[in-house]
Amino acid sequence: MCGRINMALDPSDLIDELGIDHSSYEHRERYNVPPGGTVPIIVDRPDSDGLVQRRLEPARWGLVPGWAKDLKIGYRAFNARSESARSKPMFRSAFARQRAVVPVHAYYEWVEGPQGKQPWMMHAVGHDHLFMAGLFEFKKLNEEWSRDVGMDAAASSGWLVSATILTQQAQGHLAEVHARMPVMLSGEQVGEWIDPTADAGAADEFLSLHSASFDPRTIGRYAVGTAVGNVRNEGPELAQPV
Predict the structure, then answer these.
(1) Domain containing 66 — which CATH number?
(2) Which of 12, 15, 152, 213 is least crowded, fewest Cβ atoms below 10 Å from its Cβ?
(3) DSSP 88
(4) 227 Cβ partners below 8 Å, 6+ apart?
(5) Family, per the entry (predicted)?
């Protein structure tokens, strides 16, 4: 799984690398982002003229499907199992037509040890960002929900944009930390995953092929202090190795 994110670096640096045409994401340096926080997503969406543009947008972490009657449902949907997302009512619509990539600097997982839970930080080797496969949704906000979300950047248009991160069985050394890990992509795979013309069958096939070819050596990890376990804690010291 993936339940805490490090957003120390601005993903706007990826605009040239990934051919992003438009960005409305405003970076805020954070080292301890929990579900319900704001994350960046990369999507390919048609504009008013039908021309597909690659966009970097803010989203609330935790998927809220269009049929949801309560925005809090997103707190239970910050991760989606890649093996079943295509068929689960919560995720199947987004899996078929609204796939995203969530670019983050790193993420944290915890290992149970003799002295309690030890947090580890996972990061890309040779690159500043991890590219996590995800799904996104739009939810029209009524007056009450608009008050609830307040100044949330993910809801500035009267629609809440939300996202979930896909997970798969952990591989290689990452299995020593947790049984699950995010579905992580290379920069070259971003366009194929978010292609709006690809259907659910093509996305499912992509995931099967990717799982078989993923190299866990592209991910590094090191232990960090236990302070990251409290969502109230912030600052670069949370990402220092111990």
Answers:
(1) 3.90.1680.10
(2) 213
(3) -
(4) 233, 237, 238
(5) Belongs to the SOS response-associated peptidase family.
